[in-house]
Design the sequence.
């Protein structure tokens, strides 16, 4: 029975990891293209946060596919075999998680300020301030993630776990429930609610392009927050549980069930880094037109022009200049 569960876990991890990796790679890449190439998005603060989030999502996807390949080879994600990967995996994962979570929270906060009907509040956030906040947060999460990875060690028959009891308590009662859980989720919900209320106050008769774009961004951010809350919360609680109650591999049945549950929760959290583009496509007709413009009008035409210019290039034949003098 445990061997069957582990075999199922291995297959589920591989196939779900591959599918979500390619979906995330395509979706986040297109998000980056749209948010950096469309003029309306290019100088928008919320779009800047979403662009940084897309890069962070790609980092998480590459970490995940690496674990998937190692699971296929060794039967686990490799953290139980290689100490450097044990530390590096959790450090990079936390960096990506914190960056993504707080970019979503900052995006929701920016929507609250940018849609406020008080002009002095609306212009508090500038693009320069947004860049400063992003750089400071990323530097802070890099330092925090490095320290986080230092305390991971491989314990025989258990795996890669935090060995320092003080830091274990810090991770249990602050990192997972607060720093990478309740705090960004609460901030995102709070700012999204008030941003939605601000948009509702906008006069419906105003149909300017800027106003329509503002409502589009607010709707996209609100959808992103809902997706974030639904997919991120279960995994945070599961991580708190498995840190406090590690199971030895000698308890084969319990260990196999734990591995299966971990894969299911990982699929849930991986959807958070994969599905934002597809949810935007489903819920926003304006975003669909913008994606079509980028892929067809820009990317396809550039690729076609590049290929056609190579195939239609006229190359003169070599002429033997000395042939007429012999």
Sequence:
């Amino acid at each position: 029975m445990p061997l069957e569960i582990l075999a199922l876990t291995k297959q589920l991890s591989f196939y779900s990891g591959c599918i979500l990796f390619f979906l995330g790679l395509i979706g986040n890449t297109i998000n980056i293209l749209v948010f950096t190439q469309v003029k309306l998005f290019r100088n928008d603060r919320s779009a800047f946060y979403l662009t940084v989030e897309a890069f962070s999502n790609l980092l998480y996807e590459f970490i995940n596919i690496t674990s998937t390949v190692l699971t296929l080879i060794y039967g686990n994600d490799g953290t139980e075999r290689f100490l450097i990967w044990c530390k590096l995996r959790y450090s990079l994962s936390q960096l990506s998680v914190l960056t993504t979570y707080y970019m979503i929270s900052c995006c929701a906060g920016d929507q609250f300020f940018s849609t406020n009907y008080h002009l002095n509040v609306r212009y508090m956030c500038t693009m320069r301030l947004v860049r400063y906040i992003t750089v400071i947060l990323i530097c802070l999460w890099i330092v925090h993630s490095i320290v986080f990875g230092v305390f991971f060690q491989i314990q025989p028959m258990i795996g890669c776990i935090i060995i320092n009891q003080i830091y274990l308590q810090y991770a249990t009662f602050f990192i997972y429930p607060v720093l990478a859980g309740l705090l960004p989720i609460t901030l995102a919900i709070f700012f999204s609610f008030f941003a939605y209320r601000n948009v509702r106050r906008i006069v419906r008769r105003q149909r300017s392009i800027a106003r329509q774009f503002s409502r589009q961004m607010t709707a996209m951010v609100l959808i992103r927050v809902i997706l974030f809350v639904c997919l991120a919360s279960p995994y945070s609680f599961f991580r708190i549980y498995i840190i406090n109650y590690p199971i030895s591999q000698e308890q084969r049945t319990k260990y196999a069930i734990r591995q299966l549950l971990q894969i299911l929760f990982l699929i849930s959290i991986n959807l958070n880094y994969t599905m934002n583009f597809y949810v935007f496509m489903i819920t926003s007709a304006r975003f669909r037109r913008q994606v079509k413009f980028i892929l067809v009008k820009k990317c396809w035409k550039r690729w076609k022009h590049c290929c056609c210019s190579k195939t239609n290039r006229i190359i003169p034949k070599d002429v033997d200049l000395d042939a007429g003098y012999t």
About this structure: The chain is about 80% helix and 0% strand.
